[in-house]
Design goal:
- The complex is a heterodimer of chains A (168) and B (181).
- Chain A is an alpha+beta fold.
- Chain A has a single domain (32-166), classed as Alpha-Beta Complex (Sulfite Oxidase, Chain A, domain 2).
- Chain A contains four helices and nine strands.
- Chain A has helices spanning 3-30, 62-66, 87-92, 121-125; strands at residues 48-52, 55-60, 71-74, 81-86, 105-110, 115-120, 132-135, 141-144, 162-166.
- A five-stranded mixed beta sheet of chain A has the order 2-1-9-5-6.
- The longest helix of chain A is centred in the N-terminal third of the chain and has 28 residues, at 3-30.
- With 181 residues, chain B is an all-alpha fold.
- Helix content of chain B is 73%, strand content 0%.
- Chain B is built from seven helices and no strands.
- In chain B, helix 2 (39-52) crosses helix 3, helix 2 packs across helix 4 and helix 2 packs across helix 6.
- Chain B is globular and about 50 Å long.
- Classes of the chains: A alpha+beta (168), B mainly alpha (181).
- The A-B interface holds A 3, 6-7, 9-11, 13-14, 17-18, 21-22, 24-25, 28, 33, 44-48, 60-62, 65, 110-113, 133, 135-141, 158-161 and B 29-35, 37, 77-78, 97, 100-102, 106, 108-109, 112-113, 115-116, 119, 122-123, 126, 130, 133-149, 151.
Chain lengths: 168, 181
């Protein structure tokens, strides 16, 4: 077998592996766990599901974020800039403000980190609190804020994979 | 006495490359905000190691050893098993690809081997996510983007490794190594 043929086989292996992963992930996304029966929303592979009162609203994908204004602040813990998108703006893509009350609970969680943060809409909606998603170096989202309960690295929620909004 | 597959000198070299992988992972931080960007230096080191010790299993041993080191140092964000398996898979896939592609001093072969090796790491992380139901860090950019990013950075790392190998050969490093065996 000559080198050209070996390279072609190598490229074919890459394509087959990639196609296999995307195909399986596509099937998983179409039957995402937690999707209520009868719901018409389907999750795209790799999206972060957003639930409103236990119903699936949709999945957060990068192109949604591109539409939002970017903000930044310097974190108190390490003095590093945190750049990203406000959680209130993200939620605004899926919900109207009149669907939320100041006491509405917003739970942002990461199953892989076994971490979550619970906030109220009042806290999230206050721009001064800078409750926002920062893009980590690995391309995942982390929840950071100027709020006292979310201003240290240990309190941040990295690798976010679920957002829940619950009205009282 | 039965001759060992890897000589002591080769094992020392492979351990050195494994340690280099872990050090690079800790010390080199590229602010690219893309999944898999560490493949740029990671695959370069593994490809170089696999050529410097030109025996089947060399890359796998680098992967396994670096996985063990990384696990004990608490590297990786998704637990010890994920770290150990993904580091090892990178080595195994690189070995398998080099079995097909041959000498990584051929830059295209090095690039493809780098891409396959790095894709092996992605595959394991993704498979663990599928099996356990836990997302494994590709969420915000989307899986397809992360996948492409892994392939591209793996390929670039492979080419970087290939270029380094060419430079090492020109510098007479392989002739030096031949004397040491």
């Amino acid at each position: 077998m000559n080198q050209k043929m070996r390279l072609l086989i190598g490229l074919l292996v890459i394509l087959l592996l990639a196609a296999g992963i995307l195909a399986v992930e596509g099937l998983r996304g179409g039957f995402a766990p937690g999707t209520p029966a009868g719901a018409t929303v389907t999750l795209e592979p790799g999206s972060v599901p957003i639930y409103f009162n236990d119903g699936l609203l949709g999945g957060l994908v990068p192109r949604n974020l591109e539409r939002l204004e970017q903000v930044s602040f310097e974190d108190a813990a390490e003095g590093k800039p945190q750049d990203g998108w406000l959680l209130r703006d993200v939620l605004g893509l899926y919900l109207d403000a009149d669907q939320l009350s100041p006491q509405t609970r917003i739970i942002v969680s990461s199953a892989s980190r076994n971490k979550s943060a619970q906030l109220t809409w009042q806290e999230v909606n206050d721009r001064e609190n800078m409750v926002m998603f920062d893009l980590s170096n690995r391309g995942t989202l982390k929840l950071v804020s100027l709020l006292e309960k979310l201003d240290m690295r240990d309190e941040w929620v990295q690798d976010i994979d679920r957002i829940e909004v619950r009205n009282p | 006495m039965k001759e060992r597959y890897f000589s002591t000198f080769q094992l020392i070299l492979l351990t050195f490359f494994a340690a280099l992988v872990v050090i690079a992972k800790i010390a080199l931080r590229l602010p690219l905000q893309l999944s898999g960007h560490s493949g740029l230096f990671w695959m370069a080191i593994v490809i170089i190691g696999a050529r410097v010790v030109p025996k089947r299993g060399a890359a796998s041993l680098i992967g396994l050893t670096s996985g063990l080191l990384a696990t004990f140092l608490g590297l990786g964000d998704f637990g010890a098993v994920n770290t150990l398996l993904s580091y090892s898979a990178l080595g195994v896939f690189t070995d398998l690809s080099l079995l097909l592609l041959g000498n990584p001093e051929h830059l295209l072969a090095a690039g493809v081997a780098g891409a396959i090796g790095h894709l092996g790491k992605f595959l394991v992380k993704w498979a663990i996510g599928v099996l356990t139901g836990a997302p494994v860090g590709f969420v915000s950019l989307g899986l397809a983007t992360a996948l492409v990013s892994y392939i591209i950075f793996g390929a670039l790392g492979g080419v970087l490794g290939g270029l380094t190998l060419v430079a090492l050969r020109k510098a007479g490093y392989f002739a030096y190594l031949a004397e040491k065996k």
